[in-house]
Amino acid sequence: MTRDATRNRLLEHGTRLILEQGYNHTGILAVLQAAAVPKGSFYHYFKTKEEFGLAVLDAYFAAHMANVERFFADQTRSPLARLRGCFEFYVEHFRSLEWRDGCLLGNMSQELADQNPTFRARLQELLGRWCRRVEECLEEARRAGELRPGLDSRLLAEFCVNSWEGAILRMKASKNVEPLLTFLSFFFDVLLHHG
Amino acid sequence: MTRDATRNRLLEHGTRLILEQGYNHTGILAVLQAAAVPKGSFYHYFKTKEEFGLAVLDAYFAAHMANVERFFADQTRSPLARLRGCFEFYVEHFRSLEWRDGCLLGNMSQELADQNPTFRARLQELLGRWCRRVEECLEEARRAGELRPGLDSRLLAEFCVNSWEGAILRMKASKNVEPLLTFLSFFFDVLLHHG
User: Fold this and answer.
1) Torsion, Cα of A142, A144, A149, A150 (10° steps)
2) d(CA B100, CA B103)
3) Which end of chain A has fewer CB within 10 Å, C or N?
């Protein structure tokens, strides 16, 4: 394998293991074994486990934002339909996982935000970037006349993303779709709904 | 110490350590040391670490519901004011913790729901009990004419609790009050607001 291919394999298996077991419980050795990469070569790619964990988080976020942009770019749908479509994509994603794993941004916020200031700062930055992209979509919705008047787009985007993360948390406990559908229904059909 | 006093000390220190470090990272020995209880006596009180973790969760939930009932019992306030007052109490609680720890129900859902079916079932049961109590308060609000018409109280209670848990998750990453206040503002001032 090329250097980049090996690095990507480590990130891919690291993402899966960290989603399944958490960051603290995922040992470097387990990642190397899962990725079928020889012991001892890890430190050719990453200086520390923390550097690896941050690279996993960045790769997860990049893939997430690529999904978001794929939906947001669809000019055949209204801005709110694009936003809702993106969440509906994740509902099907979590269904295929039988409501396991959840979102790495939420999981790491829970596990690491109090323990590790570097992870905390990165998580807050990435969650903020996602929120700002949702805010831009909501501003488009406002210009298209889709948004109930008087709502602050920035705070609405924060409420949207945070409530979605809460719905995912509850989905992990309920092991069914209800928390995600309840989020979609209240956010899109009630909160944003005109009069 | 009496038998009950020792058991309570173990639960108290266990709760604190599990909130700070997570369940998997909290060893029995660390709990015994923190509680100044002699090694070897743990198994007089709990058969397994899992039994201890479930007892910690139950004790946390009992204390949480006692807080909820304290606010819900205040007949001098309207039903929605009671519900909001309870969340505002937790805002001050988390402020005093400098936005650390979060809610044990959310933390354990994130950490354990995929790993341990016994914890998952207990968490879903306890979250459901909290939701039903919120639903009863919302039904009181409906009878008092405080609730915007056409909202399903059961699903609204679920959305309320899940979104609150998401706000707490984000609070851990942001280390400020904004996610909690944004939740309060959108849930009470926008979503439930008449006309």
Assistant:
1) 20
2) 9
3) C
Q: Which of A101, A164, A179 sits opposite B114 (nearest CB)?
A: A101
Contacts of B190 (CB under 8 A, 6+ apart): A151, A191
Quick: pLDDT tens for A75-127. 999 999 999 999 999 999 999 999 999 999 999 999 999 999 999 999 999 99
Residues 6+ apart with CB under 8 A from B89: B67, B71
- Mutation for A interface: B169, B184, B187, B194, most A CBs within 10 A: B169
The 10 Å CB-count burial string (b at 16+, else e) for A57-73 is: bebbbeebeeebeebbe
User: Residue B110: how many CB atoms within 10 A of its CB?
Assistant: 28
**Least CB-CB distance to B173: which of A115, A123, A182?**
A123
The C-alpha of A86 sits at a distance from chain B's nearest C-alpha, in angstroms, of: 19
Mutate to test the interface with B, among A162, A183, A192, A193 (most CBs of B within 10 A): A162
Flag whether pLDDT at B195 surpasses 60: no
The model's pLDDT over B155-172, given as tens digits with 9 standing for 90+, comes to 999 999 999 999 999 999
Q: ipTM for the complex?
A: 0.96
Express each pLDDT in B10-58 by its tens digit. 999 999 999 999 999 999 999 999 999 998 889 999 999 999 999 999 9
Which DSSP helix (H) or strand (E) runs through A5? helix A3-21
Record the tokens describing residue A138, joined without a space. Answer: 């909501």
**A186·B100 Cβ contact <8 A:** no
Please state the pTM of the whole predicted model: 0.97
